[in-house]
Design brief:
By secondary structure, this protein is mainly beta. The chain has a single domain (7-619), classed as 6 Propeller (Neuraminidase), CATH 2.120.10. The protein is 10% helix and 28% strand. It contains ten helices and 30 strands. It has helices spanning 23-33, 68-74, 132-135, 169-172, 181-189, 283-287, 381-386, 418-421, 427-432, 434-441, and strands spanning 97-98, 102-107, 143-150, 157-164, 192-200, 206-208, 215-217, 224-226, 249-254, 260-264, 323-326, 336-338, 346-353, 358-365, 368-370, 372-380, 395-402, 407-412, 446-447, 449-454, 459-464, 486-492, 500-508, 522-527, 532-537, 548-553, 559-564, 570-576, 583-588, 613-619. The protein has a nine-stranded antiparallel sheet. Strands 1-27-26-25-24 form a five-stranded antiparallel sheet, with no helix packed on it. Strands 3, 4, 5, 6 and 7 form a five-stranded antiparallel sheet that branches. The longest helix is centred in the N-terminal third of the chain and has 11 residues, at 23-33. It is globular. The chain starts with 22 loop residues before the first helix and ends in an 8-residue tail after the last strand. InterPro entries: PhoX (IPR008557). This is Phosphatase.
Amino acid sequence: MSNEVKFDDQENYSVNLSGNKPFERVLEGFVSRRKVVAGGLTLAATSFLSTKSLAGDWGNDNFRDKGDKWGKKSHKCKVGFTPVPNSVGELDNVMPEISDDYQYDVLIPWGTALEPGTVKEYTGDPSTRPTAQEASLQVGIGHDGMWFFPFRGSNRKGVLAINHEYGSNSHVLGKDAPESLEDVRLSQNVHGVSVVAIKKSRDGKWTNYKSAKSRRITVNTPMAFSGPAAKSKLLQNPAGNIALGTLNNCGSGATPWGTYLTCEENFNGYFGSSEGDAFTGTEEQDRYGFSANGFGYGWEKFDKRFDLSDADYTNEQNRFGWIVEIDPFDASQKPVKRTAMGRFKHEAVAVTIGKKGKAVAYMGDDQRFDYIYKFVSDRNHRSMLREGVSPLDEGKLYVARFNEDGTGDWLELTIDNPMLAARFNSQAEVLIYARIAADILGATPMDRPEWTTIGQEEYVYCTLTNNSRRTEPNAANPETPNSTGHIIRWKDSEHHTGTSFTWEIYMLASATLGTEETFGSPDALWADPYGRLFIGTDGGQEFGLQDQLLVIDTKTGTSRRLLTGVNSDEVTGITVTPDQRTMFVNLQHPGNGDPGATNFPAEPDGYTIPRDCTLVITRKDGGIIGS
């Protein structure tokens, strides 16, 4: 039996010992005071647009405010496609199932040469593995959040920036633990981010191609730090080593000025201690979930950067847990960790432009009983950019407190607050230990805050998954009261920049149980310009269904299942071309790496190791995705 720790179980363990009022108690008070629709708290009718505020200067139509143009089209784009039926749950899915009105192709699975011809492809042969050097030139594993950046608004050519959240030792190395530094480097090199130039050929197939814009960003890529904590001693090691790498890149986002934001989530699991069980963590380490064995990766055995007991690298752990900004069109640009946005287990980020042109970012901390955050730039984002100042470097970080009467407060994490000044010595410390600062201020513990998206009328939506990724809970027989998760929405005062908000439950997944639209464990989230919400799931589904991609018409409440994945996977990372006629969606950890569960994207053979991959989804009639 493998002793390897399945790391993402940790999201369902709480390391929050603050005693703050948990959200379920707030919710009980809220329900007792507010009228709710039949069936409990279920779908609230609303409509979305493609993040109206993200009308950037740089010409990416994924962000552009279409105004009346979208409105005139929206009535033609209802959710009317033939759904994938519940009956697919009667079979073990070794291949994805998609609506009869749609089709999919496979793009850039793990092991694909980043630039064709530069390195051989790893095709899933269990008798061999890539070398560490080969992996640094290949698409990584653990496909998750991503964004398509078109060339000059093109629907046929652009850059796909894609996260590689994780790959277990058994999946990547073919063994439970590394036996050499080479093993560790291979594991490290399949993590991080791929920036891949892709194009649509004349036969309609998307492929990657050689481009100066393509690059891999791994655990050993040089990084820059910026913002209030950039020069903090807490980010410096006695060893004097430069800042390297990004890891456990989960959800993502993009900025109005054309950059990619990748989010570092379960970074704690890659650290361990050479002292073994004798290791005793500090208060700060405990709050971020560090332990002697981490998630069983064993990197600390051969790479001292990840040894919590090595005094020369005492602050290496503080260099992870940030949002990292990447220029997708300039491979010479060093990725930048934006410390003003706080250090915690970032799941994803949604950026919009608020009052007076200020950049606003909404973020979830994906662990049970952790918090929802907001960042607001100090000034107009365009003015800051003209001055050579990043809008993500100067601003205020807030954490949410949900009140029982349907209102909420954004609590600023600032050293100017006497409550925080009594615990911390500087704003840098507040940001590096943002979780502890949020505990002190009395933020509301939530049920695994994950992806956020911006809708019409300035509503912000957030998925709360509350489910263990590495188990298969039965959504119809939950172990906890909120086993299937929910979606919450709120509206801030002062056009996203205020310190108060009103909130309500948008949907409880449990309200869909037993229906043809059943789903559980909402995770990835994206609102299109036509009033539809796309939801990717990550956890047990009813009727034996695999994880799925669901589309909801928020005007009518109509919902349809567009796609189901394969055994033990996760459906995540939703992005589209500017014309909305091509969607890219990821299937992560198919079969949990077990060729006995699935061999996808290879044809079933019971032998080939399954590989994370991107699906290119189109309507057979060439129509708008979701219709």
